[in-house]
Amino acid sequence: MRVVELSASTIVAVNALSLKPGQEQFVAPISYSVAAAVTNPATTWQRVILEGDDVVGFVQGNFDPEGDQDYFKSVLWRVNVDADAQRQGVGKFAVDALAGEARDRGFTHINVMYEPGEGGPEKFFLAVGFTPIDETEYGEVVGRLDL
Ligand SMILES: CC(C)(COP(=O)(O)OP(=O)(O)OC[C@H]1O[C@@H](n2cnc3c(N)ncnc32)[C@H](O)[C@@H]1OP(=O)(O)O)[C@@H](O)C(=O)NCCC(=O)NCCS
Hints:
Elements: E1 2-5, H1 8-15, H2 30-36, E2 44-51, E3 54-63, E4 74-81, H3 90-104, E5 109-114, H4 122-127, E6 131-135, E7 141-146
Parallel strand pairs: 4-5
Antiparallel strand pairs: 1-2, 2-3, 3-4, 5-7, 6-7
């Protein structure tokens, strides 16, 4: 597996990544939609995960030490693994890539926000090392991964 930058040749495949039934509702927690209105595209970090030549996942983070929202200064914004490639370590690989980038930029942790619930990503985030530390006003869990 390797990570590459989003490009004209991968963007179509990224948009076509599939989900398992029931996962749709967990992809975009409300907090992210609200924050997106004030997020600077220049602070966004996006990578595509390839296995051979196949696009199997996508990961997006935001790194903004000057940001006014604490949990969004170093944050996992989105991680998505194709339905057929799930439970094979792709998601962990994606989080590790994001964690490495955060470390290179001098951050000591990354945050994530997710909706708890059956079929959601909670077990995954706990398995890769995030600890629940807070809850948002929309009832999402705020997780923190120390680097
Ligand atoms: C969450 C998601 C990214 C996980 O990706 P993945 O490649 O399947 O995860 P991994 O194979 O790296 O899993 C690592 C560990 O997390 C845990 N885990 C992952 N998915 C799990 C699930 N559905 N149920 C229970 N545990 C799970 C397991 O401990 C797993 O290790 P194991 O397979 O050796 O038991 C993927 O399910 C997905 O794309 N979901 C839909 C989109 C989404 O909800 N994204 C998060 C919100 S932004």
